[in-house]
Structure formats: structure tokens, C-alpha cells
Amino acid sequence: MSDPFQNVDAAGEEFIAAFADSMDARQSDPQMESIVATYLSKLRFAEGSVTVEVGAGAGAVTRRIAAHAEPERVMAFEPSSGFVKVARDRAKQYANITFEVADGTALPLDDNSVCNLILHTVLTHVVDPAPLLKEARRVLKADGNLVVCDADFSKASLSNSPNDPLNACARAFVDEFVTDPHIVAKMRSLMIAADFEVTEFDVQSRTIADNDQMLPWVEETAKRMFDRGEIGQELFSGLVAEYKRRAIAGTLYGYQVFATAIAKPA
Ligand SMILES: C[S@@+](CC[C@H](N)C(=O)[O-])C[C@H]1O[C@@H](n2cnc3c(N)ncnc32)[C@H](O)[C@@H]1O
């Protein structure tokens, strides 16, 4: 099955509601707040500047950008009209944000008009990142900054032991909800090929020890296995219960890696 983030509206309202909440929860994790705050601290938000987020989803990161950039403008673009509706609703208190439906390969923006452009956990969900990076290069000013922050899903794990059944769910999640789990390894060369000079590249690990942040990785994949008739109700419930048991017992060990690259037009 293909990654539902390639066409979120086709994935349906239940998916939109579930992942709007899940992305909000992910971003409120202190480790994710630190990753976003770190790259925002390296950008300039001069008076009259425009910052763009491409693939903004339900706006979890856009709201952090807007709070940091205020009062300067933040324009968010997202191909899913369902996510844009939720994003507008959740960002009502921010006077400096706009959300529009648009694909990252065709932004309704003039050449050389944008000061900062951010792609946060987007490129891992597209078949071909090159046209998005080309479009970012077109709209960015000569002294503008591109930020690409993405998960290295090839390293993600929920493993406490060899052949851990929860890790089978983590691997299934990457297979079913991610397009390119190795995007981080290719990030710098893709940016250079799109005529950027990469000025920073940093990797941060993230652990999930006592909360529900990776529970959707188990719930969503176990549900799909159940729906396909691969497992019964008992194992479906058991996998979810095992995640919750570990979270309470202090033995949960989810591991993720995020990378941030900052670049300027070459
Ligand atoms: C995992 S979500 C991340 C959302 C948001 N950046 C965040 O971190 O909360 C990935 C987003 O990429 C968007 N996306 C997928 N293909 C895209 C494309 N060609 N152009 C722009 N966005 C795209 C999806 O619609 C989805 O909202």
C-alpha cells in the first residue's frame, strides 16, 4: 500500500483527524520543540520578511514558526484541503499566518520573494523531492535560507530484544506510512543538485520512553494487519496492550532520528 501522506485527502477524514492530532502531539514533545527552536534560532526574520512552510499539514510546526517570527508573515502551503481546514481552525489566534492549498512543486509565489522556506517532515513522503527543491530555489531570495528537517525512518525502532513484536509494527509503519525511509542520507546531495549550498547539517536522536507518541505506529499497523486477516483480534489488542504496559512499566524504548539541513542558494 502506498504512503497515505502522498495524497492525504484520498486517505479520508478519519486519517486527517487522527494524524492532525498525532502531529500536534509529536511537535509538543520537548525533543521536537528543541529541534524546531534550534533551526528557527538560526534564521533571520527581518521586518517585512516572508517565511514559507511547504507541506504544513495541520499546522503544528507553522504555529511555532509564526510565534517565533511574529509580527512578520508566515505563509503555509499544503496540498490537502482537509489538513488546511484543520490548520486554519487551530491557528486562529495567529494574525501573521495564512494557509493555502498548494503543492510544493507549484507555489503561488513570485521568483526571489521568500526569505526562509521550511520543509518539515515532507520529503520523506514524496516520490521525487527534486521538483520541490527546484521550486524552493525559484522562490527564495538570493540571501534566503532553506531548512529541510526530516526523520531518518531507516533507523526508527521499537525494539527491546531480537525479533521484538512491537518492532515488527514499527517496521510495518515505515513500510506503509513512509515513501523514502532513507531520505536523510540523500538530503545534502539533493539540495546541492538543486543549486543550494548546504551550510549546516545536524542529526538529533529522539527517545519515546513513557508516552503515547509511537502508539499510532502500533495501533495503525496492527489494525491494518487485523483488517487484512493476517492477525486476530487477540493479537491486535495484545500488541496495543504491550505498548501501554511498557510505557507504565518504564521499559518502553522507541527510537527515532531527525536531521536538519540548512542551505542558501548557491
Ligand atoms: C508528516 S506530514 C508533516 C506536516 C507538517 N510539516 C508537520 O510536521 O506537522 C507530511 C505533509 O507533507 C505533505 N505533502 C505530501 N506531498 C507534498 C507535496 N508534493 N507538496 C507539498 N506537501 C506535500 C502532506 O500532505 C503532509 O501534510
Automatic annotation (TrEMBL):
Gene3D superfamilies per the UniProt record, alphabetical: Vaccinia Virus protein VP39
A UniProt-annotated Pfam family: Methyltransf_11
Methyltransferase type domain span: 52-148
GO MF term set: S-adenosylmethionine-dependent methyltransferase activity
Ranges in coiled-coil conformation: none
Keywords of the record: Methyltransferase, Transferase, Ubiquinone
InterPro entries linked to this entry: Diverse_substrate_MTase (IPR051052), Methyltransf_11 (IPR013216), SAM-dependent_MTases_sf (IPR029063)
GO biological process entries: methylation
Range of residues in the leader sequence: none
Protein name: Ubiquinone/menaquinone biosynthesis methyltransferase
Organism for this UniProt entry: Phaeobacter italicus
